[in-house]
Structure formats: structure tokens, C-alpha cells
Amino acid sequence: MLYNLQRYCIHDGQGIRDTVFLKGCQMRCPWCANPESQLGGRQIAFNKNKCIGCGACVKACPKGKAAPEDIPAGCDLCGKCEYVCPREAIQIYGYDLTPDELVAEVMKDAPYFRKSDGGVTISGGEPTLQMDYIAEVFSKLHDLGIHTAIESHGHFSDAERERLIPLVDQFLIDLKHMDSAKQEEYTGFGNEQILKNMEALRDHGLVIRIPLVPGFNDDDENLTRSAAFAKKLDVPVHLLKFHNMASSKYESLGREYAYKNIKTQPQEELERMLKIFTDMGVEAQLGG
Amino acid sequence: MNLELSEKNKQFRQKIIDTDPIICPERAVIWTEVYKKNEDKTPIMKAALALKETLHRMTITIYDEDTIVGNQGSGLRATTLNPPGNTWYIEELDDFEKRDGSRFLITEEAKQQLRDITPYWEGKTVFDNTMGMLPDDIKDALDAIAITCGYTLTKGCGHWLLNIENVLKNGFRTFKERAQAALDEIDFTDPEGVFKIPFYEAVIIVCDAVCDFAKRYADLAREKAQTADGDRKAELLKIAEVCDWVPYEAPRNFREAVQTVYFVQLITQIESDGTGISLGRLDNMLYPFYKKDIEENKITKKEAGDLIDSLLLKICSIIQIWNEPDSKVFGGHPISQALTLGGQDEFGRDATNDLSYMFLESTARTHIPQPSVCVRVNRNSPDDFLMLSAEVIREGMGMPAMYNDEIAIPSLVSRGVSIEDARREFGVIGCVEMGVQGKLCDFANSGYVNMVKVLEMALNDGFDPMSGKQLGPHTGKAEDFLNFEALLDAYMVQMRHMVDGVVSVANVVNTMHAKLLPLPFMSAITEDCIGKGLEAQSGGAKYNYDGMQGVGLADVVDSFTAIKKLVFEDKRIPMKKMMEALKANFEGYEDVRLMVTKEMPKYGNNIPEVDNMARDIVQEFCIYVGKHKNPRGGFFVPGMYSNSANVPLGEVCGATPNGRKATTPIAEACSPSHHMDKNGPTQAAMSVATLDHMLMTNGSQYNQKYHPTALEGIKGLRSLVDLVRTYFEAGGYHIQFNIVSADVLKEAQQAPDQNRDLVVRVAGYTAFFTDLNSQVQDDIIDRTEMDFG
Q1: Quick check: B600 contacting A, CB < 8 Å?
Q2: Given A193, A212, B464, B750, which residue has the most CB atoms within 10 angstroms?
Q3: How many helices and strands (H and E) does chain B possess?
Q4: Are B543 and B570 in contact (CB under 8 A)?
Q5: B692-738 confidence digits (pLDDT tens)
């Protein structure tokens, strides 16, 4: 199941890319920028800022919706409220495409991929939760000569990793924290398998991505340890600055966002963090 | 890229930005006097004498910051008026200062002068003579805005892609000598030659008048030098030396060449009262002068860059006025002085040179809406040049716009242009029109066909519900069509009828221009007027086009798709209900509106079924337009661009089957309907590239709007270049980018005074955002802001 297909992605991986966002992730990182990606199934979101109170959704609902923000008991996500909304205030996340349908969709951008050495990135959620699906998509794309990349939290099994290696040209994997206990405390999963996967992928197009989360992993100690790890593997690092643009998405899903009031790190602070890596001889950059 | 202007240019730029445009009556007054005094003379002789007298008597000014001199009227941003064309201004004298957009100041004295001269022109203007000849049904179509011919009915022909290179190589002395030599060969016993006599005499008069005009600046510079000190004194004496020589004599160095360019550009405006007066490939034609000066150490690169900056700023100070309705079609003082860079030579070799880069840098440095900078892209264009283009685009002025040689050259060849001319002389005219430098007379803006109105007529048996008039032939009521093809056939019949309407008006009005507004100056420099002894608008030019545009493509395509699927294939909505919904403007028919807006595929999403229909509609239009001959031995050429006409053309149209509400703007140019390109910029561009742009010799236009972050870093620029190249390989002709966030535009709307220098791309041209009226502003904000990854 997907929740988005973003075209003309130019800041994630090489060339002009299409990024496919799959739905469902087993981690629950409190800073997550895509809260709509976490649940595996379809779900409904309501953006009260767009709502003009016309009541069309209430009238259209076969299950007795009481107000625009109400999700009535027995809601089966029939989508009638989304359909009638004149302002796109109601949105249902999650739709299915077969591998062939998805490949056909992204191949519409093939002329751009070929011109720019771009390709297709599958992101999430966590794409490896839909392993058979992405294996089939990647395989078909490779048959068509298209560059493939995956964005993953890195917590997948040895067998899954070995299955992906021949299918994926670039692995963009998050290094959230060097301290396994700290990572587990925040995300529910330790980092042992992630670090192991990274070591095994060092010669297979690995890029380490570090989301710089204020107060969690952006301290000098963790960054220095991360840099040393990247240095040991001799792979490039992308430092991704924090942003809180997901606030309204959390709100539309009826959820609290713990990082709502947390600000992006100042540019000079980001430069300083970057310097920790470059000083140790790591090929690092700000942004993807 | 050096973005720092010289101190003088910085001051001059600020002066332009801070100056409100004014209306200068001088040209109109002098023109009237001369015509009154010379009623017995031939029209071309009257025109030559009027231009001579104007150049001799008009106010001339040398501004303190001037290196390049020349001015159009009695103020820095002063428009002229042209009563022999149309005296529309007389009705609007008290409204110019009250306009919402495209505002002009005018003094009471100027108003009185204009009131005094205008009665003389009654019944003598191009407009009066045209209207006196047109049949009622065509007037009805004009009134209903099913077609518009507003441009040529109110303004001069304009749209010249000047032969500046000819002047740079020869000077006006040569033209005078050629005219004199030809004159010496003919006499009044020669029946074919007799009317060439006043033509050649007129050419000789204007050549001398041009010389006199430049010498007035030389004298003024010397006079000012007497009271100036130091550097400025030397500068003024230099100006005097330059203006004593050019443009009568051919320039000897880069500075004289740049001054020549400006004189030709300026005098063309004064003579013709037209917009779209375009400069052509200045990088190419100025390069020999630059190269020689650099090699001989007579100029530094920095000095040459300053001169280019001065030239662009002076070009920006030229301004033209439109009447109130047309100021909505062409919002924001667009005078579309196109400047073309890059491209190839006559043998197909890339012709980009140092000046191509320097003009681009100057575009970023001056950061002004005129001239309208265009870049020719071909398979050999250097990557550095395109990357610099992208870098300038990122500055947010919507410039340069990118043009595809691989479409334009064969398109011109298909319209009778030699391959050498097409490769070497292709330059952009006005907004997006394909031109041939110095060899083409092109009434490029002869009219628009309102394609959405045509659709309404096809659905209503040729009747227009808004105006309540039968505008076209009876093609049957929508409810009686047995299949979709019947509707499509009806559309084509109505479309052909409206194309015929534009052709009919254009044949009359463009001939009236030749008869009543001859252009001796333009004829002196355009190939091959002196050779033929014929005025440019009368057939003197080597190539002759009249252009017409279709507007509203996406609404028509999306409406057809909706009807085809919902009414005929799936039978979910009976035609009767669809027609009722349109009549009710979808009030009470929300179910129908939802079905068409939410369920139907739309043009702009790379869906072959829909895009191919768009291609067919454009193709039928283009082929039919191209079948029509024009009065000068040439023919009509089709285009698909709208300027901001999509707003006023939409105001007269009822609701359409794609869910568009009555009187709202129709789709612009080749672009998808607003907010309907749901698949992002790459897919929208692929849809637009599906159209056969080679058929659209009068130009096709496609805008994309990006948030500035989409162009961040080298990667952002690289991706934009790759996007342009991919779009062009797929068959696109033109693409331009507005790099500005909707928030910035909204802020500018609220606080116009703090945002007077915000430049946006409206359509085929750029304008100061605050000069646009609020509807056009809203329309721009509303256009889909492309998302970025």
C-alpha cells in the first residue's frame, strides 16, 4: 500500500527521481515527519483549517457522521466524505497499486530519469515491510535499466538484505543513534541489526543518513561516534536538519506532535555539526 | 555571477522603479499638425514628414546617469499615443490615473491638447475605417469576445524583429544611398515605378531625420558638458562624439554599436506605436565589435558589462499604453521587447559566445521586466550556458524563457523560410512568436479565438447564451447529438467560423495599417523593402505572416473528455442534465460538478487519451489557420498563447462541462487548467509536449511556477536544465519559470509600496507584480505552485 508518489524529487539521491512512499512502519519515532506513513492500513485525516463548514461530508456519510471532524462508529473508509468535500479538507491516506501499475506510473518519467541519471526511490513508512512487493518493483525497474534506491530505517533481516542487494543501486539508511539503548528508548528498536546491515552494505551503494533530532542525537558525543562509524565503513553521510512542518499533519490525524514547537537548528550550528564529520575525513553533506 | 551594478546604473534603475508612467502628448500633437499641413501628400510621405518633425521637435533628455542616450517622451517612463490608428484614449482621459493596474499619470494640459487634436482624426483612423467595412455578424463576434482583434485595432502593427545587424553593418547613410540610387533609376513614365517614388523619398527623409535626431543628443551633451565637471564632463563629450557618428554612419566600436541598438529600438517605437518590438540576437550581432575592442585593449570586460546593463535599463524605460479592456489582456505594461541569446549559425553550429553569458549576467544584475530575455536551446548548446540560464531564472524574474531550436527551425522552414535564414535569423518576437530577423513583416497579434466560447457555441447550435446572439452556423443542439463525434464535428465547424472571423477582421485592419499607417523607418531597414520599392506592411518584407492565437485549450479538452465519458460512453449523465447544470452554473447540480472534477481524467497529467485529444484539437485549428492567405502574399500562422487574455475571455463564458464556473478565467496558453495538473511538473510538461508545437509558428507558451527551494544548490539548477532538455526532446517549444512563493505574492498584494520591484512572469512577458490589476494578480497566485521533492 502507498500513500504518495512524489515526482521531480531532486534532493534525494542522484538525478531527477520519483519517490514512492509506502505505508506502514514498525518504529514510532516521536519526531517522524510523515505520521500518515506509520499505520499499515488506510486512514482518514481531517484538516480543520481548510474546512468551510458546508456540511457536505455530514450529509454524504452513510454511517451518521455528526460533524466534519467526527469519525463515526463503523466507518469503513468508503470515501464519500472525501469525495464531496469542496476544499479537500478530508483526505484518506493509503491506496493500492500492483507492481505493474506502479512501474507504469513511474516509467512515465523515464525520459527525465535517463536525461538526468535519475531513477526511482522507494521510501516509507518502512518499505521492507512490503518486501515481496518492492522486490518485484525493483526487479522490473532494473529490467528497464532504471536506477533504484531505497530509503529505510535499516532494521531488516540478513536474508532480506541479501535479497535486496542485487535489486537496489543505492541504500539510504538512517543512523538514528549510536547508543542502542537510547535508540530503543525513543523508537522501540535497538541499533544492532541496523549497524550490522550497514557494515554488510558498505560496498553496495550505502549512504548513511542522520536525521538531526534536537535533544536526541545531535549532541557532539553521538555525532563524533557516528562519524567514526561512517569513517570505518568509508561511506558518505547526509545530515538532515530537523523541521516541524509535519505539525499540521499530526493535527489532521488527531494526534499530538511532541516536536511541534521545536525549531530547526540554526545554520551555523548545522555547519558546526557537519564539520565534526568532515574533520574526521568523512564525505558528508547537509541535506540529501 | 557578479550581481553588483555600477553606481550610475544602480541609481538609474532605482529611478525607473520609482517613476510612475506618464502619458506624453507630444508625438500625437506633432503628428496631427504635420498631417493637417500635408493633406495632399501620399500617406507614406505624410508618415515620413511626421516622424521627421517629431524626432526634430520632441523633448529630448540626457539623464545624469546616462551612458547610452535616447528617450521616448517628455518623462522617463512616458508613453506616446497614436491618433491615426485609434483615438480610443479620448474616452479614458480622466480614468488613466484611476486604473487598478497599468496606471498612467496625465496632466490637465496634456488632456486638453489631446482633446484639441482628436476631432481631426474622426473617420480617418484605422479603427474607424475598419469598423466601417466589417459586416454585423463579425462585429457581434467581437462584441461577444468570441474573437478579439483588440491589438491591431488599437495599436500599431509592432512585432518587428528588427534588422539591427543591417544598421550595425551599414548605417543609415547606406540606406539613404541605396534609396537615392533606386530613385535615380525610375521616373513618372514608368507605370510600375511611379508609386515607388514617394516611397524612396520617404526613406531618404527618415534616414536624414535619424541623423538629425542623434545630432540633437550630441549637441545637448556638449551643452551639458559646459557646466559639468571631471568624469561626467568627459562622459558627456564621449556621448557627443558617439551621437555625431551613429546611427547614420556604421559604428566603429562596441560602445557605438550599443548606442546604435538603442536608437533603432527607440525610433521604431516612436514611429510605430506598436509593442513586441524585438531586438533579436544581440549577443551574436554585437560580438564582432566586442571581440575587436577586447583584442585591441580598447575596452575591459567590466566596461562592456556596464554598457550592456545601461542598454537593458534604457530599454526598460520605454513604455506603451493600452486601452482599458486591452490592459487586462496585456496586464502590467508589457511591451514585450524580446531579446534572444544563444542559438546557432546558418550552418547549424552553436553560436553561443562571451556576450551570451554577459547578457545573461546583466539580466540578473539589472533585475527589471524589460527586455524580455529569451534563450535558444539546441542539441549543441553548451551546458555552462544553460546552467547560467537556470541560475538567472532562480533570481525570480521569470527570465530567461527557454526556446527550442529543434522545433522553431523546422517550423519556420515549413512556412517558407530558407534553412539558412531559419537557423541564423530565428529570434523571438514579442511574447513567444517565432521570427526571422530583419526579413519578416508579422502582424503577430492579429487576434484571439476564444476556444471556450467556441465550445459553448458547439453545445448551443451556434448560439451564445451570454450575449444572446447567434454567432455561428446552426450545428445542432447538444441534446440531439447521437455520439461524441457529432459534438466534435460541431466544434470544428464553429471553430472554423471563428477563425474565418479573425481572418476577416485581420485582412481589413492589416490592410488599413498599410494604407493609413505606413512605416518608412521600418521599411528602410527591413529586407527587401528598398529592393522592391515597397513599404514593409504593403508586402516589402521578404517573409509575411499574420498570427492568431487560440485560448482556453485545457478547458475544451477537459470538457470534451467529461462529455465523452459521462454522457456517451458510461451514460451516467444525460446530455439534457449536463446542459441544465451548465445553465444553472452547477447550482443544485453539485453531483455533476463533483463527477467531472473528481472523476474525469484531465489534460496535464500525461494521460495519452486526453493529451491526444488536445493534440487533435490544436492540429485542426493550426491546419485551418495556416490555409488562409494574408494581404501581403504571405499567410496566417497559428499560435497557442494567451498573455493574460484568459481572464477577460473567461469573463464572457458560461460554466463549462469540466466543472469550471461561469465568468472565471479560462486556461492559459498550453497549460493545464488551474490545479488540474495533479502529477507534478514532469508529467504536466509531458502532456504539453504532446501537442504538435511545430505547427504553432506563431508560438506556444507554457509556464511553470516553482518555489525558490526547488532550485537550491547546483543540484536544483542541474535538475531544471535536465527538465528543460527532456521537455524539449519530447517536442516542447517554450518553457518559462516563475520562481516565487505564493506567500511572497500575497504579501506584495497587501503591501504594494514595499514590493514595487517584484518581477513576475505573467505569460509571454514579465511585469512588475504591483502593476498588474488585482484579478490578474489573483490568477497568478492561483496557478498551481509546483511542489518539490
Answers
A1: no
A2: B464
A3: 31, 18
A4: no
A5: 999 999 999 998 877 776 787 888 899 999 999 999 999 999 999 88
B104 HSE (CA, 13 A, CB side): 30
Question: What are the Cα distances from residue B102, in Å, to A125, A281, B62, B317, B768?
Answer: 51, 58, 26, 15, 10
Crossing angle (nearest 10°) for helices B484-516 and B553-562? 160
Q: H helices of B118-163, where?
A: 126-131, 136-143, 150-154
Residues of A with CB under 8 A from a CB of B: 6-12, 15-17, 19, 56, 83-84, 108-109, 111-112, 115-116, 118, 287
Instruction: With beta carbons under 8 A apart, name residues in chain A contacting B683.
Output: 7, 108-109
pLDDT in tens, B121-177: 999 999 999 999 999 999 999 999 999 998 899 988 899 999 999 999 999 999 999
Q: Which pLDDT score is estimated for A26?
A: 95
CB contact under 8 A, B686 and A108: yes
pLDDT given for residue B297 in this prediction: 98
Contacts of B730 in chain A (CB under 8 A): 111
CB within 8 Å: B729 and A111: yes
In this model, does residue A14 exceed pLDDT 90? no
Q: Compare CB distances from B680 to A7, A116, A287 and report the shortest one's residue.
A: A7
The yes-or-no answer on residue B433 being catalytic is yes
Among B157, B431, B622, B670, the one annotated catalytic: B431
Model pLDDT for residues A36-92, shown as the tens digit of each residue: 999 999 999 998 877 899 999 999 999 999 999 999 999 999 999 999 998 788 999
In chain B, pLDDT over 70 holds for what percent of residues? 96
Chain A residues with CB under 8 Å of B590 CB are: 56, 84
B670 catalytic per annotation: no
User: Packing angle between helix B136-143 and helix B484-516, nearest 10 degrees?
Assistant: 100
Tell me the shortest Cα–Cα distance from B705 to chain A, in angstroms.
14
* Cell numbers given for B87: 483615438
A150 beta partners: A122, A171
Q: Which residues contact B466 (CB under 8 A, 6 or more apart)?
A: B144, B456, B652, B653, B654
Domain borders along chain A are 2-40+94-286, 43-93
Asked if A17's CB is within 8 angstroms of B680's CB, the reply is no
Would you state the pLDDT for residue B676? 85
Spans of chain B below 70 pLDDT: 329-333, 709, 756-757, 759-767, 783-789
Task: Determine which of B722, B743, B787 to mutate to test the interface with A (most A C-beta atoms within 10 Å).
Answer: B722
CATH of domain A43-93: 3.30.70.20
Tell me how close the Cα of A115 comes to any Cα of chain B, in angstroms.
6
Determine which helix (DSSP H) or strand (DSSP E) holds A238, and give its type and residue range: strand A237-240
**CB-defined contacts A:B, below 8 A:** 71
**Backbone φ and ψ of A119, nearest 5°:** 170, -150
Distances (CA, A) of B737 to B609, B701, B721, B740, B776: 27, 11, 12, 9, 17
What architecture does CATH give domain A2-40+94-286?
Alpha-Beta Barrel (3.20)
Chain B CB contacts of A9 under 8 Å are 788-789
The answer to whether the CB atoms of B789 and A7 lie below 8 A apart is yes
Q: CA B456 to CA B654: how far, in whole Å?
A: 8
